[in-house]
Every structure is written in structure tokens, then in C-alpha cells.
């Protein structure tokens, strides 16, 4: 019995030794991956926005009195000079007011002349004591009232003449008519817009920029502007004005870029402007380096001391066209897996090469 027991133990040991040899033979080789070292770099947010060329000064022209339009002299696109008549209203009522004011003025002048003569006679008579002081004082008061009525009549005539002149709508400066909203026969109210006048002089490129671009602050002052039809005609310009309010309907902020005098682009020319935000520091990685850790962005990091990998959550500041920017979770010089990371496990040993 004893020799059989020793033989059984020997066979068992031989079997276990054979299993260990199989285990060692079945151990897989390290996973082959490609890596890149994480390097710090500056990055800027940029955007190309389309806009159009507009006049620096643009005004809405309107009549200062109400009336029916009887004449329109210009149309959209016309170049006008300061003082040029653009349209006229029916002025029959205003003409009648002027005639009535002139008649009232002539009457007031006649009354003043009459009261002046009466006052002069009263002054001579009171000196010779032919009339009483009270009678003289009354003559002086009547002359004063007549002179006041004359002043009022002169003011009324000036007001009537102004109202008559307001039936003509004139250009307030040299420029181009860019819009109109009246036709002959139309009844216009006072202050109702009739024409839009783009003044001659400086020009701006106007862009409506989505508010998300301003999350990092206002864009840099320098902007590259070029006509949409020919990018080779681009010029360097500077931002002149950023609107302090957001267009709530479109979710945009208006930016006006001052164009140099050598940019001879007509009003309404479609242009494209390249806006950039202030530079920031971060680590830029290609998209094939990104992984997921419970739904959060992560990367596989290689530990050089033992060749194992670790899944690290990262803070992504921005996703761009061909890469993404990391601002937290990894440090410069960390080795980041870019290829072969789909089937990795935490702590797995890898063999790596450069990308």
C-alpha cells in the first residue's frame, strides 16, 4: 500500500507541474499600442462669420408733419446731396396757414402803427395837460398790447412757414438711399420713416456673432476681413464697437469692424471676417486618443515605471475640428494612448511605440 501511495503523489505532482507549464505558455503578450507625449500648447478659439458692409452713419429720414405724398424724387440706390428734395406732401393746408398768418401779421402791424400814433398824441396832450394822466397810461397800455400781438403774429407766421417747409423731405447729408417706405398717394404720419440714408464717408463691416463665442471674453481687436466673392482682397481691420446687448431673437451680438479707406467695397457687399479669442494654455490631443469613463471623457495613460495603463478622466475645454483641448486630468510629458486603446483594461501591461 505504501509504494502505491507514493506513486499516486508523484503522479499528482507531475500533473500539477504540467498545468503550470501550460499556464505560462498561454500567457498573452503585452498589448501593442501607439502613444504620444502630452505637450502643453497655446490654442485660440476662432470663427469665420459672414456679414456685410454698411455706412458708419445711417439715419432714418421722415416728414415732420402729416400729409399725403404727391411726389417722390428718388428710389433705393440713388446718390443724393445734402439739401436735395426727396419727396413732397400735399401742402394745401400749410399754404392756407401761411396766408392766414401773413394776413394776421399785416393786421397786427396796422394796429401797432395806429396805437403808436395814438400814444404819441396822448403824450403831447398830457404834457399840455389837455388829457389826464390816466388817459395817457391807457394809451401806453394799448400800444404795449398791440406790440405783443405783433410779436405773436410774427411767431405764428414763422411757425406756419416752417410747417410749409416740412412738407418737403430733404437729405440731411450726402449719401445713398438704402431703403424707402413711401409711395405717391400714401398718407404719411409725422416721424414715420420714409427713407434710410447711408451717409458718405467711413464704412464698417458688420457681423452678428453668436453669443457662445464670447464665453472666453471679447474677441481680439484685429480681424481679417475679405469679400465673400474674392478672399484675395482681404484686409486687416480693427473692431470699432461691440454691442453691449444680445439680440434675444437670434442669440447674437453685433460687432462693427472699422474698414480702412483703401477698402473700396460698395454698401451691402457680403464679407467674411475671421475673429479670434485671446490665447489659452492647454494640451491638444487627436480625437483617436479619447475614451470614456462612465460617460465622461477620458484617456488611457501609460505608466512608464511598469508598462501598465490607467484610464484617466480629463477636463475637456473645447472640441475642435480634428482634435480636442484638455485642461485637467493629465500633465505635460504623460504618455497618452492614441491607437490600440479600444480593448484595454485597467492595469493591463502594454508595449508602445511612437505615433
Automatic annotation (TrEMBL):
The keyword Membrane does not apply. Belongs to the membrane fusion protein (MFP) (TC 8.A.1) family. Residues 60-196 form the Multidrug resistance protein MdtA-like barrel-sandwich hybrid domain. One of its GO terms (cellular component) is efflux pump complex. The keyword Nucleus does not apply. Residues 101-167 form the Multidrug resistance protein MdtA-like alpha-helical hairpin domain. Residues 136-170 form a coiled coil. GO terms for molecular function: efflux transmembrane transporter activity. Transmembrane segments: none annotated. It comes from the Bacteria. Keywords: Coiled coil. This is RND family efflux transporter MFP subunit.
